[in-house]
Design a protein that fits this description.
- The structure is a homodimer.
- Chain A has helices at about 5-35, 40-45, 60-85, 95-110, 110-120, 135, 140-150, 160-175, 180-200, 210-225.
- By secondary structure, chain A is an all-alpha fold.
- In chain A, helix 3 runs antiparallel to helix 4.
- The first copy, chain A, is elongated.
- At the A-B interface, helix 8, helix 9 and helix 10 of A face helix 8, helix 9 and helix 10 of B.
- Chain B binds a DNA duplex through helix 1 and helix 2.
DNA sequence: GCCGGGTCAAGAACAGTGTTCTCGTCGAGT
DNA sequence: ACTCGACGAGAACACTGTTCTTGACCCGGC
């Protein structure tokens, strides 16, 4: 066993350590799925046959574990949306738009607790660390990209000047030649998308709307209209 | 009973008890404002110079106190929206609409923790009791009432049939002669309103949009267009 | 061979939490 | 005057996140 040498030993350590990270996160996700949104470190440790303090070898605090879960969830959600959108013919703008929206909704309904971590109440003592901002922006960037391909400039009142300044700054930051009106409508749709998914995941529509998938699709279609998608 | 003696005595008891209820809720609101969303019963008791178990004379559990706070907050929010809307000339439909929306936003920004109780992550072991549903529906009813006065039927694609069935049921429940299209757009706007306020209160727009009031007003105006308001 | 350094997990401890139960105390009604 | 009910305090229980100490283990270097 010693033939592969010291490098493999240290990398083996690292691999075991990274697997432990993964296993802790998976146990935490299972807890999150069964219990509510309040994650108990001790319960996670119990599920793994460990004692709570042992987890501190791998995550410096409960917040760090939450942060890791949040980043994973953002990545997962963004990937689900991107994959669904990529499966639609490029010239079918409305189809790509609706596919992305429905993918976000489906992921949220399948992972309500993780979704709550992302878009619910911010956890009390917890400030979102800067490394979450990039994975968090995947969905809006996807929507903006689709809106950017819209053939017509969106109808309806254009954004007022102070908002245009913000839009210009955002467009410059992404280095893209998006028009302000199109980004404006992409932001509108993005806000609405998560507003509606919030209501549905948090059971605010339960005894109000039965045909929730159709309701969702209909409204996302109206927002596609507003974004100028054909 | 006999005379004013017993009545006044028992009503004095009841009054003191109800004042105690109010004081506990106010102390809890103060805690909620300074600390995050996790309300500590013991801390509330400490602030009042009491011991935690004494609060159980007035609220059977922490959830019951939260429920009382939630109902108060729904009432407060609904009242703020209704008052702002009532201050606008009746024939200025768009003005009434925007006034209600801005009132919701202002209330939420002024009471972020209480807003989080209403529209954030549902508290883990906590199921919204049925007595919250009436105060919770005040804002959507207000928006629907304004949309119901719209002169034109809203433009754009009408809701598909399964959704129409839900809309019809909702309209019948409220006993009002609202058209399905108008309620559809009111629901759209309601969802968007709270989606946008969520994003703003939960700091999702912090380093994205500077002109947040204008951004909000612009988008609520677009939704007024969609609802057919002149 | 053995020995030191590093990694790991356990366990105890501390300060908190919600909740329940018991035990005095005090005030009002009969 | 006595009784009964409401009230608040305090202890206790089962939890929580976090820190620190202690002991076991493995692995490279002497």
């Amino acid at each position: 066993m010693c033939d592969t040498g010291a490098v493999s030993a240290s990398s083996l350590r690292a691999r075991v350590r990274s697997e432990m990270h993964q296993e802790i996160k998976e146990a935490a996700r299972r807890r999150l799925a069964t219990e509510g949104a309040n994650l108990s470190l001790r319960a996670v440790a119990r599920d793994m046959g460990l004692v709570a303090s042992a987890l501190y070898r791998y995550f410096p605090s409960r917040d760090a574990l939450l942060t890791a879960l949040i980043i994973d969830a953002y990545d997962d959600l963004g990937e689900a949306a991107a994959e669904a959108e990529a499966a639609v013919a490029r010239d079918d703008l409305r189809g790509r738009w609706l596919a992305a929206c429905h993918a976000v909704r489906s992921w949220a309904l399948a992972h309500p607790a993780e979704y709550g971590l992302l878009y619910g109440n911010p956890v009390p003592g917890y400030a979102a660390p800067p490394e979450t901002v990039v994975p968090a922006s995947k969905v809006i960037l996807l929507l903006a990209a689709i809106a950017g391909e819209a053939p017509d400039v969106p109808a309806g009142s254009p954004p007022p000047e102070p908002v245009r300044a913000d839009l210009r700054r955002l467009i410059d930051d992404q280095g893209g030649g998006l028009s302000e009106e199109r980004l404006d409508r992409a932001l509108l749709a993005w806000t609405h998308l998560f507003g509606q998914v919030n209501f549905e995941v948090f059971h605010r529509l339960d005894d109000m709307v039965q045909a929730r998938a159709e309701y969702f699709g209909h409204h996302m279609g109206l927002l596609a209209d507003l974004a100028g998608l054909p």
